[in-house]
Design brief:
This protein is of the alpha/beta class. Helix 10 links the parallel strand 18 and strand 19. The two termini are about 30 Å apart. The N terminus is likely disordered. InterPro entries: Beta_hexosaminidase_sua/sub, GH, Glyco_hydro_20_cat, Hex-like_dom2, HEX_eukaryotic_N. Keywords: Glycoprotein, Glycosidase, Hydrolase, Signal.
Length: about 600
Amino acid sequence: MISTATPTKPKQKKAIEMRICEGKKSMFQVFVLPIPKFAIILCLTLIFPPPAASLKSAVNVWPKPRLVSWPRPLAKFLSANFTIDSSYHQHLTPAINRYLGLVRTEHYHPLITPFVIVSASAPPLQTLSINVIDLAVPLQHVANETYSLSISEAGETAYLTAETAWGAMRGLETFSQLVWGNPPAVPVGLYIWDAPLFAHRGIMLDTSRNYYRVEDILRTIEAMSANKLNVFHWHITDSHSFPLMVPSEPELAAKGSYGPDMIYSPSDVAKIVQFGMEHGVRVLPEIDSPGHTGSWAEAYPEIVACANMFWLPGSNGADQLAAEPGTGHLNPLNQKTYEVLKNVIRDASNMFTETFYHGGADEIIPGCWKADPTIRSFLSNGGTLSQLLEKFINSTLPYIISLNRTVVYWEDVLLNDVVKVDSSFLPREHTILQTWNNGSNNTKKIVEAGYRTIVSSSEFYYLDCGHRDFLGNDSRYDPQTTGQDSKEGASWCDPFKTWQTIYNYDITFGLSEDEAKLVIGGEVALWSEQADPTVLDGRLWPRTSAMAETLWSGNRNEAGRKRSGEATDRLNEWRYRMVSRGVKAEPIQPLWCIRNPGMCNAVQSF
């Protein structure tokens, strides 16, 4: 916030002092390794305020950049005619126009006034000049997102240099977060070099159990971009509904969706994909199969085993037909299964430009397949459930690969104790496995087997956890209890995953250096048994911001210590800024804590 209430006389100092930082600041040197195509080695003196004063800096960017140099707390105003200059690019240019409007009109007022000197006499910043080294690089996995940003004290132009258009978008977001106040000001004498630690940083959203409008998805993608996330993993279909209109199989949505107003048309998909492109976010479709396909039975009952049956017919867990209410598995022995599924895969590949295709393959429930007479006959003749899954994978994976797609499956396809395939059916060069059980142990198993992995450990990254069970007619609630048993009504993945739990998770924990290279990144997951558009923002944000920072710049400080304590103040500030931008992120502390830095800590800072 910039205060200019008292007139400045000509003979007075040329700077308007807002506040000047008191006390010593830690100072150290860091050497940056050679940057591809920049071919420079920098020795920069970095200045970071102590944790209690972290919000008093005007450099409060989330995720925290990898390298910041700001030797003096100086800032200048933006020109009323401030502009952004760059070469034309189909997706970058709309992003530039969006950010230009944001920095001119946001007028964000930090919760704690920055301790900076804003020069009233220095010429205002007129232009942000963007130089992209290779504008032709498509938005795909491992697209380079490196950027550097330089704002000098004396010049009227700031410079943003990026390897690709996607790196330029990350730099634009950083620049937008540096701007604050009315009239807008920006730190000067500032240099930032930044790049993500992990190439894959995403959110998985389930739109089958409950439907989300297109505008809800677009708002989520916009918030992802602001947090420098780059993959929207869209779990579109499941046993509960089939909301995607597939042109060659229209009956799947017509009969399997919740209704005609709860269907994503091809034009809806095109709008979402385009919006993602303009925000540097890939849209990765998941059509889960062969499990989680009960909704397919509305159009094709002959290809789905155990459809529309009660999920838990007996008291014995061996009788279970589904992991939760909503039964149905595709039948691998029916040739019609592959005719329909290949049509779906082909059309999905045409609608989504993303080079990853998620095939699901999780939670094969033996009881469901055994409920089908043709499968029972196969098993009685010496066949196995794992052979059924191998037949399914061998009949679909090569087809997906033929469409120039890399196939992503959930970990179950390789690690399940009962139904799994031999690794020979999963070519490592074309397959990525997404882990969700058993924390770092399953990550270790996957990379030891030589597969790339996306980490979504439910113990840390499942955002739906902690809202207890959703089953009705549950006799466990009949007796009066004391309320002391924490397991009463618990869901399988309790407890609630706090932002600190998410922030402190190291997704390469316990891995060797070579094994860690196979971890391409991570995703938080929001399954929608108890979520819909009314709670979407609060379930995602700012907890997802915690993962966003750890996958971008890590969760440790320069001394190697976890920095969640220092991050608290910054995340508070960032959460309020997201709210001001239209994202209904839930609070992480009372406002009093923010206004009284350090007073809400578990341990007093000295």
